[in-house]
Amino acid sequence: MGTRLAPSSIRVRLLIAGAVSIVVALALAGTGLSLLFERHVERRALVELGVHLDQVIAGLDRAPDGRLAAPQPPADPRFTRPLSGLYWQVEAEAEDRVLRSRSLWDARLDLPADELRDGQVHEHTLDGPAGQSLLTLERSVTLPGRLGSPKVRAAVALDRADLRAATAAFAADLLPYLGVLALGLIVASWLQITVGLRPLAAIRARVGAIRAGTASRLGSDFPDEVQPLAAEVDGLLTAREGDVARARARAADLAHGLKTPLQVLAGDVARLRESGAVDVADEIDQVATAMRRHVERELARARLAAGMLDGSCRPAEVAARVVGVVRRGPAGARLTWHERIPADLRAGIDGDDLTEVLGALIENAARHAATSVTLTGAAADEAVELRVIDDGPGIAAEQRAAVLDRGTRLDTAGPGTGLGLPIAQDILAAWGGALDLEDAPGPGSGLAVRVTLPRPRRADSRAPRHLPML
């Protein structure tokens, strides 16, 4: 089954929802990973600042003038480059003196006025000499006795811009991998949706098979989530078949029930004409003819309303039954009958419907034939062709379309209602067949009625049909 992506498609909706969920989830994951990386970088920076802080404190000594000095500052060259982003500072409380790295230039770190125990370390975020945000590590320590045991506050600071730059670089490196991961997850989601919706595609295919006549039910081989739907549909089909069968039976009973009184009326009309009451007989005959048309129409409608029946029969058997009935009548007894339909030929139509069609055609042929009626049948490509051929006067080509109109009769003197051919045509159309009028083959006059029928779809085909407007 082809995949059609449309805004109203469940597949598209699920795919869009899945793609949006994947993108949002990966965006949150990327943001979380960036924050975790930033925390990790910050912890590493604090460890580095701790090492620098130890080096600053260890490098303190007394200058020749007796004042506190830092003759051995940390070796990192950034401490000597002005405004490099890495700074150190030492405040000697007793001397009211501030030692600082060259990178601070003439600025100083504005340490908060908090109380620190000896050896205690605090973390701060301070403003730097260029207005930048600094990650600061501060320690309060009492120097050894050889230095006079003064208490000092030493601090080392790092520009947070370096941390943010590292985090941004990490995010930039992470983004392509998240994109590839998103694409892979969307493809996997599409595959999952395709596999998950496959039972619906199977239902669609089986519904199409039911419409085409190659299946009668959806079946039970579906997943647990879809099986209740298939079971309900099958139950609906079963209920519909029962309703249609009952409606067909009621319509057929009604139509057949009316046929007997109509036959009685026909006999009364004949007796009235014999007694000379021609006007009354004509009026009753007109009413009876109208009623007969309705009866014939309802019989055809009842037959077509079956909706789903066995759509396979042997035309040879159906033709033999119809000929057997017609040849016992006055019109058929005088004729020679030729049945040339292969016994193994099968057509995709209900046997009763084909009986209705051939009954109308064979009765017409028997009424107009001069000496014989021939029935032929053959398979042609994907169809079955049957012909009812008589050697009567035939029908002019320009009048054949009119004959197929409902109620039209060329021979108004004989019996009939003009409904036989139109009803046969409706029945054939319901089964995907057709009816055509042709010249009889060979010399002389005559009419050949060609019936085209589909091949049977399967042995127990249940062909769905649309009821035409009769």
TrEMBL record:
Catalytic reactions of this protein: ATP + protein L-histidine = ADP + protein N-phospho-L-histidine
Superkingdom classification of source: Bacteria
Domain Histidine kinase: 253-457
Keywords: Kinase, Membrane, Phosphoprotein, Transferase, Transmembrane, Transmembrane helix
Annotated signal peptide: none
Localization terms from the record: Membrane
A GO term from the CC aspect: plasma membrane
GO molecular function terms attached to this record: protein histidine kinase activity
Chain ranges passing through the membrane: 12-37, 174-193
Protein name: histidine kinase
Organism: Roseospira goensis
